[in-house]
Amino acid sequence: MQRFFPLLLIAVALPVLAQTVPLPRPRPEPPSQTPVTTAPAAPLAQQVPLPRPRPATPQGAPGAEAPAPASAPVEPEAPRDYQVACPAVMQGIAVASSLPPVVEGQCGLRSPLSLKAVSANGRIVPLNAPVTTDCGMATVLPEWIAEVDSYLMARDNTRIATLIVGTNYACRNVDNAKTGNLSFHAFADALDVVGFVLDDGRTITVEQGWTGTEEQGSRIVRFAHDAACTHFTTTLGPEANALHHDHLHIDLGCHGSRCTARLCE
User: Fold this and answer.
1) C-alpha dist (Å) from residue 17 to 5, 14, 20, 218
2) Does residue 202 register a pLDDT over 80?
3) For 117, phi and psi rounded to 5 degrees?
4) CA within 20 to 30 Å of 130's CA: 16, 112, 118, 209, which one?
């Protein structure tokens, strides 16, 4: 009897709970009508109006461009000269200025320099006259002058005051021959050195010093020749041939299959 009584209470309470807790309403059916279609968005050009074009300025009004005369000639634009800067000049090792390209038949140079002086052992050593040469010569020449200058300072307690030069750029064949290969002078890659003016007042020339006495500079000239052989690919002195009896020819020409051979005479 005690077990039956709680079950009876649950049976009586369930219908009451079902009546007090409302059930959710059913979802309404969609209306039976034609679905509304959305029109596509208008293109951006139609949405944002473009600015109106500027009206043309009448001729003669302020701001109007004057028409060019029908007979005015049209001058073609001059071609540009693209040249290469020389690091030795930019660093102050060589004192030089750029020249326009040299074109003379097969001779010439795209980026020639007018070389006026070189820096050697912290000093500026001028040339007796500007020479037309290339960046290679302007780079190596100061190294050679510095070596000769150091030798003079150590042996004779003097230094180079001026470098005496001869032929530089010249459109000609080797040894001025009528036929044959072009000289490296034809490409501004060669220089003839005649001698040196020293701080002690002496003028040493290759012509006098090569076969002369020590007072005439034989020791200095021969040292300069031997030192040039270590800096340049070509060094020709009085013993090369009679055409070089009065100067040292130095250049940076190519010798051998790999351009690494040196010619020292």
Assistant:
1) 19, 5, 5, 135
2) yes
3) -160, 165
4) 209
126 vs 95: CA distance, rounded Å: 9
Q: pLDDT by residue (tens digit) across 110-143? A: 999 999 999 999 999 999 999 999 999 999 999 9
Closest to 238 in 3D by CA, of 202, 262, 261, 205: 205
pTM (predicted TM-score)? 0.70
User: Can you give the pLDDT at residue 258?
Assistant: 87
CB 100 within 8 A of CB 110: no
141 burial via Cβ count (<10 Å: 0-12, 13-18, 19+): buried
Distance from the first to the final alpha carbon of the chain: 142
List C-alpha distances in Å: 144 to 119, 133, 193, 232: 11, 16, 12, 9
Q: Going along 99-171, which residue ranges are E strands?
A: 102-104, 107-109, 113-120, 123-133, 160-165
User: Cα–Cα distance between 247 and 12 in angstroms, integer?
Assistant: 138
Angle between helices 135-156 and 218-231 (to 10 degrees): 140
Give Cα 203 to chain centroid, integer Å: 39
CB 168 within 8 A of CB 188: yes
Comparing C-alpha atoms, which of 139, 161, 137, 140 is closest to residue 149? Answer: 161
Spatial CA neighbour of 92 closest among 112, 121, 118? 118
Beta bridge partners of residue 165, listed in sequence order: 193
